[in-house]
């Protein structure tokens, strides 16, 4: 019986030390959530095409020569909902220097997304619909929300995984160095 007790104590100690280390590693990874991560070697953005809320096609190629912040989100994603107002604010602040393209990954389609856009007042953003999640796969997004800064030359300059406060000076400064001077819209 004593041996069984020692075995249980050893198993608990092993599990605590193993899973405790994993939790600390996860915590270290999460310090990057919501932060801009520059691309080590900018690569061409995948060519994706989605539709807007009126059913018209939107392709990344439509924005050639412009800086784009591609935001992948969904109406059921609480962190996405939290960051959306700051994306609207970012678009207003940076004007024509940056186009925010918010691509919904909702499988339900335009009806639910239109209601959501109206409710939150997101009308100043270009909103796309991607019910088959082609953008998530093409950009190898690890979760929602995920945002990708795409340069005028069509290369991915960096990304933000997880919800971000696009109103923060730190985040704006991180992306502003890539952008031309802003012209308020």
What this model shows, in words?
By secondary structure, this protein is of the alpha+beta class. It has helices spanning 2-30, 78-94, 110-120, 134-138, 169-176, and strands spanning 36-44, 49-52, 57-59, 68-73, 99-104, 126-129, 146-150, 155-161. The relative contact order is 0.21.
Summarize the structure.
With 185 residues, the chain is α+β, with helices and mostly antiparallel strands.
Explain the layout of strands and helices:
Layout: H1 2-30, E1 36-44, E2 49-52, E3 57-59, E4 68-73, H2 78-94, E5 99-104, H3 110-120, E6 126-129, H4 134-138, E7 146-150, E8 155-161, H5 169-176
Parallel strand pairs: 4-5, 5-6
Antiparallel strand pairs: 1-8, 2-3, 2-6, 4-7, 7-8
> How many H/I helices?
5
Mean pLDDT: 85
Give the structural class: alpha+beta
What does the radius of gyration come to? 20 Å
Unreliable spans are 2-31
- First-residue to last-residue Cα separation: 76 Å
Q: Report the count of strand segments.
A: 8
| Content of β-strand | 15-25%
Strand order of the largest sheet: 1-8-7-4-5-6-2-3
Q: Helix content range of the residues, please?
A: 25-40%
Task: Tell me, briefly, the overall form.
Answer: globular
Oligomeric status: single chain
Name the helix and strand elements from N-terminus to C-terminus, one letter apiece.
HEEEEHEHEHEEH
| Main beta-sheet annotation | 8 strands, mixed
């Amino acid at each position: 019986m004593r041996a069984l007790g020692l075995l249980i104590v050893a198993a608990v100690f092993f599990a605590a030390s193993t899973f405790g280390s994993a939790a600390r590693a996860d915590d270290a990874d999460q310090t990057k959530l919501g932060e801009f991560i520059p691309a080590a070697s900018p690569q061409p953005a995948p060519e994706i095409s989605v539709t807007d809320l009126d059913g018209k096609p939107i392709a990344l190629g439509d924005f050639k020569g412009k800086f784009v912040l591609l935001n992948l989100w969904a109406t059921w994603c609480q962190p996405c909902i939290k960051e959306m107002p700051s994306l609207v604010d970012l678009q207003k602040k940076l004007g024509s220097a940056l186009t925010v393209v918010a691509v919904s990954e909702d499988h339900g389609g335009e009806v639910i997304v239109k209601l959501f856009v109206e409710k939150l007042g997101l009308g100043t953003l270009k909103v796309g619909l991607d019910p088959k999640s082609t953008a998530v796969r093409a950009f190898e997004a690890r979760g929602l929300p995920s945002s990708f800064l795409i340069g005028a030359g069509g290369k991915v300059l960096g990304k933000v995984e997880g919800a971000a406060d696009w109103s923060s000076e730190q985040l704006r400064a991180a992306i502003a160095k890539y952008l031309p001077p802003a012209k308020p819209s």
